[in-house]
């Protein structure tokens, strides 16, 4: 259910807008993550929408110049990487004078520095996205288009996801007040295998949802 929900969410957020920008053709997506990382699911789901997935070798992933060449030679339309990796790729020529060969660029796994956010906003013909989510909520729980804000944001909840910013008493904090992020919805995991105490600590009852539902305390 969780992976199916992620696919449904990204089809609306990423796949369909990028396909429209490409003139309704199928897309070429690069797999920019280690398969040991939960984010490795995200690029694989593009195949379910009929797009081609290009697997990048570990050696190429580690070399910004090689990866930029791979993107250009294979005419890749989309890749998601960490913000720090994106900055290395930019330095290797992926972003030059406000242009990028990609139709869409996703970043995730780290906070986005303001200079990178600005560079992504200024790209002509390339949509930029910040994707946030812990493993416990199936890869991506919040998403933001860089076009919608002048400063870095984690964005709004993805499809069938709810996000709360709460105080120590599990009450919503006013706008601008620091609190803790809790996530709930279709992407929520059941808990940690054979770790009941940790599951009870991190997956708590959702006081705002239907009876029996839970939310994840991100920390």
TrEMBL record:
GO terms for molecular function: phosphopantetheine binding. One of its GO terms (biological process) is secondary metabolite biosynthetic process. It comes from Streptomyces sp. AAH63-42. It comes from the Bacteria. Residues 8-193 form the AMP-dependent synthetase/ligase domain. InterPro entries: AMP-dep_synth/lig_dom, ANL_N_sf. This is NRPS. The gene is nrps. It holds the Pfam family AMP-binding. GO terms for cellular component: cytosol. Coiled coil: none annotated. PANTHER family: FATTY ACID SYNTHASE, NONRIBOSOMAL PEPTIDE SYNTHETASE.
């Amino acid at each position: 259910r969780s992976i199916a929900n992620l696919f449904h969410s990204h089809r609306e957020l990423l796949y369909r807008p990028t396909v429209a920008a490409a003139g309704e053709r199928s897309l070429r997506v690069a797999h920019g993550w280690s398969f040991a990382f939960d984010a490795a699911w995200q690029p694989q789901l593009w195949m379910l929408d009929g797009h081609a997935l290009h697997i990048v070798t570990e050696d190429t992933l580690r070399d910004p110049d090689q990866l930029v060449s791979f993107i250009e030679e294979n005419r890749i339309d989309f890749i998601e990487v960490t913000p720090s990796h994106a900055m290395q790729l930019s330095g290797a020529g992926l972003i030059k004078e406000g242009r990028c060969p990609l139709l869409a660029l996703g970043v995730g796994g780290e906070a986005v520095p303001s200079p990178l956010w600005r560079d992504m906003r200024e790209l002509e013909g390339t949509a930029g996205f910040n994707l946030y989510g812990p493993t416990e909520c199936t890869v991506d729980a919040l998403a933001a288009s860089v076009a919608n804000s002048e400063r870095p944001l984690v964005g709004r909840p993805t499809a069938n996801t709810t996000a709360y910013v709460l105080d120590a008493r599990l009450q919503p904090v006013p706008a601008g007040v620091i609190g803790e992020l809790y996530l709930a919805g279709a992407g929520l995991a059941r808990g940690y295998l054979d770790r009941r105490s940790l599951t009870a600590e991190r997956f708590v009852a959702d006081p705002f949802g239907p009876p029996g539902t839970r939310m994840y305390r991100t920390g």
